[in-house]
Amino acid sequence: MVSLIFDLGNTLKKDLSLETSKDISREIFRKFDVDENTIKTFNQMLLDSLREKKENFTAKSILSGLLDDDQICEKIIDQISQELAERFSWNYDTKSVLENLTQRGYSIFLLSNSIWNSKFYISENEDYFKYFTDVFFSDQIGFRKPSRNAFLKVIKSYNLAINETWMIGDSEENDILPAKELGLKTIKVANNLDSTNSKSKCHFLSEILNIIIDGG
């Protein structure tokens, strides 16, 4: 059976800018009277962890090291997560593509990096997440892409056949290269396709069905 693993940000939905995310988090921090130095330190540590491609970290793990009150820490993270979830901006063709793939009997999975509490992403966007057989967010499974452990978590959880499984994403480093190293088929969906190691590529999500049917 053919299985499909999707990335989320910039593949199925548009990512918020870093500045917008920082503005949202800063507003909520201030509601809890978190001082500016702590906010600045948190943002810098978060940025450093992203740049260093750390395999396992979350916003909560960073904030817990800066605040003494675990309950306040959890409330802050949950409020930021919910605010971000409510601002999801899905691509215009995402729902129709997922519905089409589901009707054709494909097993559909999601593998996405998340520094926030991803349970709110799901609860606030059930009309989209209902199409997935299962979803794997890094804050839940403990591994972030491009770690091979993140991909193996999906594969081993459902005993997926490597030669019948596709990884579909926009990032060469996080999606395409690690998937190819494991033997998965890949489709890169992005505006700029000039340089990619993926044999199959397209500009629009709606184009992937023909690629999958043709076998890449």
CATH superfamily of the largest domain: HAD superfamily/HAD-like
What is the averaged pLDDT score?
94
Neighbour order of strands in the largest sheet: 5-4-1-6-7-8
Terminal CA distance reads 15 Å
Gyration radius over CA: 18 Å
What structural class do helix, strand and pairing data support? alpha/beta
* Number of H/I helices: 11
Hey, roughly how much beta strand do the residues contain?
5-15%
Question: If you consult CATH, what is the topology of the largest domain?
Answer: Rossmann fold
- Please provide the ordered H/E string of secondary-structure elements: EEHHHHEHEHHEHHEHEEH
Oligomer: single chain
Question: What's the CATH C level of the largest domain?
Answer: Alpha Beta
Q: Characterize the main sheet.
A: 6 strands, parallel
Morphology call: elongated
| Strand count | 8
Q: Under the CATH scheme, which architecture of the largest domain would be assigned?
A: 3-Layer(aba) Sandwich
Description:
The chain has two domains: 3-14 and 90-214, HAD superfamily/HAD-like (Rossmann fold), CATH 3.40.50.1000; 18-86. Helix 1 (18-31) crosses helix 4 (70-86). The mean pLDDT is 94. The chain is built from eleven helices and eight strands. The protein has 216 residues and is α/β, with parallel strands linked by helices. Strands 5-4-1-6-7-8 form a six-stranded parallel sheet, sandwiched between helices. The chain has a two-stranded antiparallel sheet with strand order 2-3. Keywords: Hydrolase, Magnesium, Metal-binding. This is HAD superfamily hydrolase (TIGR01549 family). It holds the Pfam family HAD_2. Its cofactor is Mg(2+).
